[in-house]
Design goal:
Elements (H helix, E strand, L loop, with lengths): L1 H24 L42 E4 L5 E5 L5 E8 L13 H8 L10 H9 L4 E6 L4 E8 L3 H13 L5 H20 L4 H12 L21 H11 L5 E6 L3 H12 L24 E6 L17 E7 L8 H11 L1 E3 L13 H7 L7 E3 L2 E3 L4 E3 L9 H18 L3 H15 L5 H9 L3 H12 L4 E6 L7 H9 L14
Parallel strand pairs: 2-6, 7-13
Antiparallel strand pairs: 1-2, 3-5, 3-6, 4-5, 8-12, 8-13, 9-10, 11-12
Helix pairs in contact: 2-5, 4-8, 9-11, 9-14, 11-13
Length: about 500
């Protein structure tokens, strides 16, 4: 035992002396000078002699590359936004869509979307167009909405001349052969069947609520081609429409990731003085109608029990969308309405995520969290050049904490979306098409920050005084009457008449 104690004492004593020697003779806690041989005595906190002083990037909240806009002699606008990177997104946006089809067969814009990037005067087939784009790593797309048609290409910036020439040919010189039109008819039929069979009824309900809100005018016209018009739309009908609405003064050539002067040069080369396939006659029948909000109800009784993605059927649900008139995106109240839409928020009952996904919005807290039988409650805001539609109602004054949260969410969503080049392209094109200029992100964020609680109260009160638009799909036996829905929206507590209450 004595030997063991002696050995332990020596070990402990040795470890203490080893520790002291390490502290005395070991390396210092930090180096005072550079270890490089060229500058042996220069402290790390001082710049190296003879080396240029570094210039660091600063964040000042301003966007360095403003959107440039040039108007050509024929009225076509060219807009660009510089952005670093090898690839660019370029496209032509046209003030054209289903809202301008009042004097035509409904569904022309839908057909033109399916016919986009087909054969032209220079390219004898869609395959030739795709092969040309592939040489520059490019992809193409066409989208139509109620008020805008957009042809877009993303490709290597070095192929800008080829891309603009291809876009000009696709937009102004389509062949529209009978074979291509027949293929478009098949694509339209398939899309209509898919629209009526998909479990998510949101696209169909959106169509119905617009039809109810703007009865038989402008944005209330069918965005999808009605079945009875599919066989009636031919080359002559399409050319008649294109002659009136595919004109230079209704177009914007927008680009992101390219030099503005180069884009203007390409626009002059391919889009100035060219004669389109339908002739150069002046437009004679342009619809300049202003949207007239009417309110109303559109109902569609349907058995939804067989709608399913697999062998197990979905629960049979009744789907209702209520819309109220808001404002156009040109009005000052557009920003408060956008914040109000974020405050309402919502989503599906199985949505996952934290506060950034809307878990603290009013529809989550007051509807989905309180009523287990609710599968979905979501707010939508549709805004156009002369009107707007908010598809949910608000009846309580907002608290400051949720207002700040909604404003932060809206700014966060705006900035994250604008990190994508195609989104920047669409933003540039749509703003210049509508206003001939573009508000930069920091300007929009400043407008969002300036929204006050009284702004939300004002726009919500104004909206609730109007007539609602109601779209209902599914089993509608217990759907309240339109007058009762309108009365509930205008009442202080938002309650339906006692006839529809479970507990009186």
């Amino acid at each position: 035992m004595a030997a063991v104690v002696l050995a332990a004492t020596r070990l402990l004593g040795g470890s203490r002396s080893w520790g002291r020697s390490r502290l005395r003779f070991g390396a210092p806690a930090h180096r005072q000078f550079s270890s490089g041989g060229a500058y042996p005595n220069v402290p790390l906190s001082a710049p190296l002699p003879g080396v240029p002083r570094p210039i660091f990037a600063t964040v000042d909240g301003q966007e360095k590359f403003e959107t440039k806009v040039t108007t050509l002699e024929n009225g076509l606008r060219v807009a660009s936004q510089n952005k670093f990177g090898q690839f660019c997104t370029v496209g032509i946006l046209i003030n054209s869509g289903s809202r301008y089809e009042a004097k035509y067969l409904g569904g022309i814009a839908h057909f033109l979307e399916k016919l986009a990037f087909s054969s032209t005067d220079r390219f004898d087939s869609r395959d030739r167009i795709l092969l040309t784009l592939e040489k520059h790593g490019g992809i193409c797309d066409c989208q139509t909405s109620r008020d805008t048609t957009m042809y877009a290409v993303s490709a290597d910036s070095k192929g800008l001349d080829t891309v603009v020439g291809l876009l000009a040919d696709v937009v102004l010189h389509p062949r529209l052969t009978e074979e291509e039109i027949e293929m478009a008819r098949m694509a339209v039929r398939f899309e209509l069947e898919d629209l009526n069979m998909r479990p998510d009824p949101e696209p169909l309900l959106t169509e119905m609520v617009h039809e109810a809100a703007y009865k038989e005018n402008t944005v209330g016209l069918h965005r999808f081609c009605p079945t009875e018009n599919i066989a009636k739309i031919d080359r002559e009908v399409l050319h008649s429409y294109l002659r009136n609405y595919y004109t230079p003064d209704r177009m914007v050539l927008a680009g992101v990731g390219i030099e503005h002067d180069h884009l203007v040069e390409c626009a002059r080369k391919y889009l100035l003085g060219t004669r389109p396939a339908w002739g150069s006659e002046a437009p004679v029948d342009v619809d300049r109608s202003v949207a007239q909000y009417t309110g109303g109800v559109v109902k569609l009784e349907r058995d939804m029990s067989q709608v399913s993605l697999g062998p197990a059927p979905f629960p049979e649900l009744t789907h209702i969308m209520i819309g109220l008139e808001s404002c156009s995106f040109l009005e000052a109240d557009f920003i408060p309405f956008a914040v109000l839409n974020m405050m309402m928020g919502g989503g599906g009952s199985f949505s996952a995520g934290g506060p950034g996904k809307g878990m603290f919005t009013r529809l989550y807290l007051n509807v989905l969290n309180r009523h287990h039988w609710m599968y979905n409650a979501t707010s939508y805001h549709h805004s156009y050049e002369d009107t707007g539609l908010l598809c949910i109602h608000a009846s309580a004054d907002p608290r400051q904490v949720e207002l700040e949260r909604a404003k932060t969410q809206l700014m966060s969503m705006l900035m994250m979306n604008l990190e994508s080049r195609p989104v920047i392209f669409e933003d540039v094109g749509r703003q210049v098409l509508a206003t001939r200029s573009r508000k930069l992100p920091h300007e929009l964020c400043a407008l969002i920050r300036s929204v006050k609680p009284e702004d939300i109260k004002r726009v919500a009160s104004k909206m609730l005084r109007g007539k609602p638009a109601v779209a209902a799909l599914g089993d509608l036996r217990d759907l309240p009457a339109y007058e009762h829905i309108q009365a509930a929206l205008s009442s202080r507590d938002g309650r339906l008449p006692r006839t529809y209450r479970l507990f009186r």
